[in-house]
Design a protein that fits this description.
The chain is of the alpha+beta class. It folds into three domains: about 1-25 and about 90-275 and about 455-490, Alkaline Phosphatase, subunit A (3-Layer(aba) Sandwich); about 35-85, no CATH class; about 275-450, no CATH class. Helices cover about 30% and strands about 25% of the residues. The strands form seven sheets. Strands 17-23-18-19-20-21-22 form a seven-stranded antiparallel beta sheet, with helices on both faces. It has a six-stranded mixed beta sheet with strand order 10-6-11-26-7-27, sandwiched between helices. Strand 19 and strand 20 (about 355-360) form a beta hairpin. Helix 4 runs parallel beside helix 16 and helix 7 runs parallel beside helix 8 (about 225-255). It is globular and about 80 Å long. The two termini are about 35 Å apart.
């Protein structure tokens, strides 16, 4: 309750002291709509733009047969300078991480002809839980967060969630980006997401150009929380609007940079478009005979942090298997995952009355042992791998085969994500909970004010799958977040070292 009171005091202060917080919106420069497309003598299509508003084109993009841009022209159709695209020579890298935009929305936008300065989007699979801090840490190689969220259990007591959040203590990746919205203003971005999204994009655009004009050629990474807030408020329509802004903003950056820029867009994870209802895990566990507490002392004690409005949850308890089994029976819970107290390489997965064990064998091998049914619903895919002779004598399967078989599953890459979860946090919970569609856990204060039309965090495809695309060219079609950085480096994109000064 103390954290909740401080949240509202900070929001009140921000409303009073930041009446012009949208000033970044007035810095944002967007490309105008196209004048239309012209077909050239060789059959190629040239899409033209009028930047000085004199009714005549002064910038154009030339599209290949597949619709991708392969050349840009500065000047009118009878002259000017034509550059191959992507441009060669020394370029500056601009990397924009937009919170929560799911792959499927970007894929549809690209296929409809938008964002064609970029190669086709690749689908990324976030770690589980699919929340911002571990997801971006994985992309940028920045180690572990303290907990699943800013509020967690550490050193025998709950952490100070608000202090952790506003100081970025749970976000090692934050030290690697050159722009991020002041954390106490994040709440306001959910109250007026359209204005604050313009502010963030305008601030990134202005800061990138200012650094470039100072001679700074180091990679510029910007993080946009507005992707989450506009999706949470306006669902898919909000994300489509955000993509339109990004498309027009990136054209403006390319024009002002004379084509000497390489732009990469990505999201940290996906978003499930639904208007969810709150799950009160503490009450459900109390009814099951556990004791929700703020300090754990007894075997039946549980601490359930509540912070954001997400489709996952964490439970700290000395009785992980019993608590996970009880949580899995609650309405709104789809999966509960606990480590085996007697075998640190084993995880137990529960769903309703179903249960299974996942053996994390090391060296890229995993074994799935159904105990009562198939809670992850992956036995059909695993049976095909066994029939193809890909299983060892002990039933274990290799990561490469599992990734191919499970990357498009309703719980994508479930075995690897189940086994990796503890490695993402300095203070991992004893039980991870993935909620069913249409449910969320966490702080409800903002729900009454903001509304909630989308959420994320669960093991499910919609929540887990983000995107990455770059003007440097095509990337592998599916990537774990942890593999995104290396894939970008292979096509020439430069990323800063983790912990480098901003």
């Amino acid at each position: 309750m103390a954290d909740r009171g401080r949240i509202w005091r900070i929001l009140t202060l921000l409303v009073l002291v930041l009446p012009s917080a949208g000033c970044g919106a007035f810095q944002l420069r967007l490309f105008p709509p196209s004048l239309g497309a012209a077909t050239l003598e060789d059959g190629r299509v040239e899409r033209r733009y009028d930047l000085n508003r004199d009714g005549r084109p002064d910038f154009a993009e030339r599209h290949a047969a597949d619709g991708q841009v392969h050349g840009i022209r500065f000047g009118g159709p009878d002259g000017g300078v034509m550059l191959d695209w992507p441009s060669g020579g020394e370029v500056c890298d601009l990397v924009i991480i937009v919170d929560s935009i799911p792959y499927d929305v970007v894929d549809r936008a690209w296929k409809s002809g938008r964002l064609r300065l970029f190669g086709p989007p690749s689908r990324t699979i976030a770690p589980f839980p699919a929340v911002t801090d571990p997801a971006i840490n994985d992309i940028l190689g920045c180690g572990r967060s303290l907990g699943v969220e800013a509020r967690h259990y550490a050193n025998g007591a709950p952490s100070a969630g608000l202090r952790n959040y506003t100081s970025w203590r749970n976000s090692p990746w934050a030290g690697r980006v050159k722009y991020r919205l002041w954390a106490p203003a994040h709440g306001l971005s959910y109250l007026d997401p359209g204005t604050w999204l313009l502010h963030e994009l305008g601030s990134i655009q202005a800061a990138f150009h200012a650094g470039r004009e100072r001679g700074d050629r180091s990679p510029f990474v910007g993080y946009v929380v507005g992707g989450s807030s506009i999706g949470a408020r306006y669902s898919q329509e909000g994300h489509e609007h955000a993509l339109d802004l990004l498309d027009r903003m990136c054209r403006a950056v390319i024009h002002r940079s004379g084509g000497q820029v390489r732009i990469t867009l990505m999201s940290d994870h996906g978003h499930a478009y639904e208007s969810p209802v709150r799950v009160r895990l503490d009450q459900g566990l109390r009814a099951a005979g556990f004791h929700p507490v703020s300090r754990i002392r007894g075997e039946r004690d549980v601490f359930v942090p509540e912070w954001g409005m997400i489709s996952c949850a964490a439970i700290y308890t000395p009785s992980p298997l019993e608590a996970a089994a009880a949580a899995a029976r609650l309405e709104g819970v789809e999966l509960a995952i606990a480590r085996d107290p007697d075998d640190r390489s084993a995880r137990h997965v529960f769903s309703g009355e179903l249960s299974a064990r996942v053996d994390c064998l090391g060296d890229g091998w995993f074994r799935y042992v159904p105990l009562r049914g198939d809670p992850l619903r992956i036995e059909p895919q695993l049976a095909e791998l066994r029939a193809a002779g890909l299983a060892r004598a002990d039933g274990a399967l290799a990561d490469a085969a599992l990734f191919d078989a499970l990357s498009r599953h309703e719980f994508p890459d479930a075995l690897m994500r189940t086994c990796r979860a503890d490695d993402l946090f300095a203070h991992p919970p004893d039980v991870y909970v993935s909620l069913a569609p249409g449910h969320f856990s966490g702080e409800s204060t903002f729900r009454a004010v903001v509304g909630l039309s989308a959420t994320h965090g669960s093991m499910r495809y919609e929540s887990s799958c983000g995107f990455v695309m770059t003007t440097a060219g095509a990337l592998p079609p599916v990537l774990r977040n942890a593999d995104v950085g290396e894939a970008l480096r292979r096509v020439g994109v430069r990323l800063p070292d983790c912990g480098a000064e901003r």
